[in-house]
Amino acid sequence: MKEHQFKIQLKVRDYECDLQGVVNNANYQHYMEHTRHEFLESLGENFGAWHEQGLDAFVSSVSIQYKQSLRSGDSIISCLDVEKVGIKLVFIQYIYRLSDGVLAAKGKVENVMVKDGKLTRGEDFEALLNKLK
Amino acid sequence: MKEHQFKIQLKVRDYECDLQGVVNNANYQHYMEHTRHEFLESLGENFGAWHEQGLDAFVSSVSIQYKQSLRSGDSIISCLDVEKVGIKLVFIQYIYRLSDGVLAAKGKVENVMVKDGKLTRGEDFEALLNKLK
Amino acid sequence: MKEHQFKIQLKVRDYECDLQGVVNNANYQHYMEHTRHEFLESLGENFGAWHEQGLDAFVSSVSIQYKQSLRSGDSIISCLDVEKVGIKLVFIQYIYRLSDGVLAAKGKVENVMVKDGKLTRGEDFEALLNKLK
Amino acid sequence: MKEHQFKIQLKVRDYECDLQGVVNNANYQHYMEHTRHEFLESLGENFGAWHEQGLDAFVSSVSIQYKQSLRSGDSIISCLDVEKVGIKLVFIQYIYRLSDGVLAAKGKVENVMVKDGKLTRGEDFEALLNKLK
Fold first, then answer.
1. How far is Cα of residue D8 from the mean position of the Cα atoms in its chain?
2. Which CATH number fits domain C6-130: 3.50.50.60, 3.90.700.10, 3.10.129.10, 3.30.70.20?
3. Helix-helix angle A25-42:D25-42, to 10 degrees
4. CA-closest candidate to residue C88, choices C114, C125, C56
5. In the 8-state DSSP scheme, what is residue B130?
6. Average pLDDT, integer, range A9-16
7. Contact in structure between C51 and B19 (CB atoms under 8 Å)
8. Which residues does residue C110 pair with via DSSP β-bridges, in sequence order?
9. Which of B15, A53, A47 is nearest to C13 (CA)?
10. Residues 6 or more apart whose Cβ sits within 8 Å of residue B2
11. Which residues from chain B sit within 8 angstroms of residue D37, using beta carbons?
12. B124 is catalytic
């Protein structure tokens, strides 16, 4: 498990598993979203508060490779790295199984920032990343 | 399957089933919510539009009896009856399996109306029910 | 916040909030399910493993009173008390907002145990509760 | 809206919208999964029955471009095209807003087939696609 800019530990919840007995694919997107929003909070920002201020980060694309199914009882380490590319904030996200460090899924999630309903050039993303330094 | 004031047909979606191979209990609440909101639309109202106008119906209590598990491939008929009791709008909801009419779940859902952040006496519920006549 | 037999801390995830900006009602049922399953794990059992052994606890009824909406950024303490009543295992569950200890929701969840497809008299529930002593 | 091999109509459910007032990104993956499974049913197969026979299609990768946010009240047409590429079954999926035909999201979803726990060369996918002819 290599070093990443941010990580949280989560526990698989049984309702996240589907009839195949494994975590449903869409829930990895939920894990990744929650990790990004906790990353935001670690920098003193809150996604809900942003929305109330007219500031909305929207996902423009997501791609996920599924490597290893997660099951009831598993805990995970959900990690991310982030950089600004053009107007977008791009997250590379990794979900590792805690018990053995195996990579369960890897994702790339691109975000754009909309302010009062208008697409921005991502100035707020830049301000956010400056807090990392 | 007795007569009810409103009904819709839905299909079980496989991601709604959990590792037991049956629809997860919380998803019945989703079916019931969607049925209430479709009932609203049948009366010319929309839950999201209400919220944007400062009008929020909130569930104050829910109780559900689970009678028969639903599975992959099942379709359901989701029905409701509604009346105003005091300041509350009270729904009695029924979920029947389409194939044989068996009652899968029965629920009672009580709602209060909040307008611009303040609890109301339910005048908007009354106006809504008047549309039924 | 009074004493309870088991509790876990959870963080509201933003995808659990709906267009009203508060945690969707059905997600309280998810919080309560996850708390029960973590309670199981605290006693050395796992819900998924039970299912693979032909042992399925099913919710027969749930009732929830919603007291205080939860929002983005909130953490919660999810607590439960449990007893066996007839063939059923009955949980009384409480969700408190961490920041101020306010009760957000209270629920009662009744469970029956099915073994190899047949309803039991709850002997496995009794064995489980004996582990508490 | 160009022609596709399979399509279904769905209605946005309000609980699928998050605090931004739009359908949460992960739910597009749910829409796409449900569309694939309905496609299966149109060919006389059922995902849950497959699982019980030891046949599990697993998503190995998904990529989605989000073009237009969906909101409360929207209906969608969810379409797919499918082909076998190597051992994989590859779906190209499109979600159009019903009211104006605008493309809301486009996805590519790759699947592998596991039989009794072992990765197959996709013979069952081939048999499935033969039913299309």
1. 10
2. 3.10.129.10
3. 180
4. C125
5. H
6. 98
7. yes
8. C61, C90
9. A47
10. none
11. 13-14
12. no
* pLDDT tens-place string over residues B16-34: 999 999 999 999 999 999 9
**Distances in Å between the alpha carbon of D68 and those of B117, D23, D28, D65?**
31, 10, 12, 9
Buried-state track A5-22, b at ≥16 Cβ within 10 A, e below 16: ebbbebbbbbbbbbbbbb
Question: pTM (2 decimals)?
Answer: 0.97
Q: For chain D, what are the domain ranges?
A: 6-130
Predicted confidence band of residue D2 (pLDDT cuts 50, 70, 90): confident
Which residue do the tokens 């029960």 mark? Answer: C36
Tally DSSP H helices, then E strands, for chain D: 3, 6
Q: Is the dihedral of CA D98, D103, D104, D110 positive or negative?
A: positive
Whether ipTM tops 0.90, in short, is yes
Residues of D in contact with C19 (CB under 8 A): 14, 17-19, 21, 72
- Render each residue's pLDDT in chain C as its tens digit; 133 residues: 679 999 999 999 999 999 999 999 999 999 999 999 999 999 999 999 999 999 999 999 999 999 999 999 999 999 999 999 999 999 999 999 999 999 999 999 999 999 999 999 999 999 999 999 8
Question: B37: part of which helix (H) or strand (E)?
Answer: helix B25-42
pLDDT at B1 over 70: no
Nearest chain A residue (CA) to C26: A15
Q: Which residues of C touch A (CB under 8 A)?
A: 11, 13-15, 17, 21, 30, 33-34, 37-38, 41, 46-49, 51-52, 71-73
